[in-house]
UniProtKB/TrEMBL annotation:
Tagged with keyword Transmembrane helix: no
Functional note: Required for flagellar hook formation. May act as a scaffolding protein.
Protein name: Basal-body rod modification protein FlgD
Pfam families named in the record: FlgD (PF03963), FlgD_ig (PF13860)
Similarity remark: Belongs to the FlgD family.
InterPro entries named among the record's database cross-references: FlgD (IPR005648), FlgD/Vpr_Ig-like (IPR025965)
Keywords assigned by UniProt, alphabetized: Bacterial flagellum biogenesis, Cell projection, Cilium, Flagellum
Amino acid sequence: MEIAQVQSNTAFASGQSTETPETVISSDFETFLKMLTVQMENQDPLNPTDSAEYAMQLATFSGVEQQVLTNDLLESLMVQMGTTGMAQMASWVGREARAAVPGQFDGDPITIAPNPAAIADKVELVVTDESGAEVQRLQLPTSAEPYEWQGVAEDGSPLPHGQYTFNLISYSGEEILIDEPAEIYARVTEVRAEAGETILILEGGAGVLATQVTALRE
């Protein structure tokens, strides 16, 4: 009985059972030993199987067993780390995080945190709505000073409430140096742990990895 057949049986058992990996491995290892014993008992006495082959099969199965246990341990550690990170960031709920995400406009100004190119001589803020249509293009100072976007059209009328995306374009003359999403401040409403990562949910439903947040304020 070759080790490949034993591994196939292991995979089938894992797919059809709710037993833990440790239980499945233990059961399959016992089965493997029984099959190995039967193979030894029924071998041709005049042409016995080389003992090195048995040792190789046993070593291979043990290696598979160890790898499965290691993977299970790593998965458990990732879950624990994600949960720990989420617990540590629970205090972020209610505070404003800065990240390159869409902003929810409900009538109150949205703080833009521009970061133009150092050699830029002109900076534009391009605002698009949820459909991707451009609704406004504003010229900003060539500095990193925060800008309060009021959500007011050129005729002085307020723009509709909803989610808006902000892009910052840095120019040198007519040449575009950088065209990238602008960072904004948005209030954190929820902290989630997903696939080992800590996700912050912001007002309006936008989500961002905690590692992508560059600042936090009350």
